[in-house]
């Protein structure tokens, strides 16, 4: 590539961040370097066209991460749709797809009504949403003080294992309400470790989320918890005419 080692090292040094978790990542990276978003959207579209051509039904959901403002999401959604439509036009094969966002930044949750103008689905990234709402790093906190907090009653439970319903959960509830007010049929779900926690799943059922995503080892627990939560909610709902 005719790029010197010194040039590469200088570039790497320039990318170093003091706080990468809140730095240039997610949609921010795609906005500053649109070629990354274009490359990923094209790869998804090309793959979808290929399998659609083989007679396989495919419905990609393309998710824009770490969104905190409408402008961020709108820019990325437009770019993704432009790339996908270009692939469809060139390949002559269409497929259904949706573009949505990950709700993992508190401001994004508060702006859910506006985001729903362009997002066709929300997936709540409760790991990062918990980190940013509490203002703590999961890796550092679990190693340094969360167990102490739980043991001494500062926190009832580890908020990264069981969702904090009063804080993080309230943001989820608000986002669901505001998102549905704008787009009544918006798809809503959650991804993260909370998707495998029975108590958290019961909360997600109550606020109206329709799916959970979790690590493979928690899938069976999540299925059972989701079924139990649905039955519990059904039993507690008033019977018409009763």
From TrEMBL:
<dbReference type="InterPro" id="IPR015813">
    <property type="entry name" value="Pyrv/PenolPyrv_kinase-like_dom"/>
</dbReference>
<dbReference type="InterPro" id="IPR010121">
    <property type="entry name" value="Pyruvate_phosphate_dikinase"/>
</dbReference>
<feature type="domain" description="PEP-utilising enzyme C-terminal">
    <location>
        <begin position="15"/>
        <end position="229"/>
    </location>
</feature>
<dbReference type="GO" id="GO:0050242">
    <property type="term" value="F:pyruvate, phosphate dikinase activity"/>
</dbReference>
<protein>
    <submittedName>
        <fullName>Unnamed protein product</fullName>
    </submittedName>
</protein>
<dbReference type="InterPro" id="IPR000121">
    <property type="entry name" value="PEP_util_C"/>
</dbReference>
<dbReference type="InterPro" id="IPR040442">
    <property type="entry name" value="Pyrv_kinase-like_dom_sf"/>
</dbReference>
<dbReference type="InterPro" id="IPR023151">
    <property type="entry name" value="PEP_util_CS"/>
</dbReference>
<dbReference type="Pfam" id="PF02896">
    <property type="entry name" value="PEP-utilizers_C"/>
</dbReference>
């Amino acid at each position: 590539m005719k790029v010197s080692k010194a040039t590469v090292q200088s570039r790497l040094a320039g990318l170093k961040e003091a706080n990468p978790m809140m730095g240039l990542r997610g949609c921010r990276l795609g906005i500053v370097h649109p070629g990354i978003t274009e490359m990923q959207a094209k790869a998804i579209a090309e793959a979808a066209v290929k399998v659609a051509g083989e007679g396989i039904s495919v419905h990609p959901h393309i998710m824009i991460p770490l969104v905190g403002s409408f402008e961020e999401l709108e820019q990325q959604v437009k770019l993704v749709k432009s790339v996908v439509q270009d692939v469809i036009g060139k390949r002559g094969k269409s497929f259904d797809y949706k573009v949505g966002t990950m709700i993992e930044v508190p401001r994004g949750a508060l702006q859910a009504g506006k985001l729903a103008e362009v997002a066709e689905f929300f997936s709540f990234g409760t790991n990062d949403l918990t980190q940013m709402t509490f203002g703590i790093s999961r890796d550092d906190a679990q190693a340094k003080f969360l167990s102490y907090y739980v043991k001494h009653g500062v926190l009832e439970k580890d908020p990264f294992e069981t969702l904090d319903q009063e804080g993080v959960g309230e943001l989820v509830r608000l986002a669901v309400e505001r998102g549905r007010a704008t787009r009544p049929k918006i798809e809503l779900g959650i991804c993260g470790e909370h998707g495998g926690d029975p108590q958290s799943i019961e909360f997600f059922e109550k606020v109206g989320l329709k799916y959970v995503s979790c690590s493979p080892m928690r899938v069976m627990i999540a299925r059972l918890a989701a079924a139990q939560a649905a039955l519990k909610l059904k039993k507690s709902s008033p019977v018409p005419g009763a």
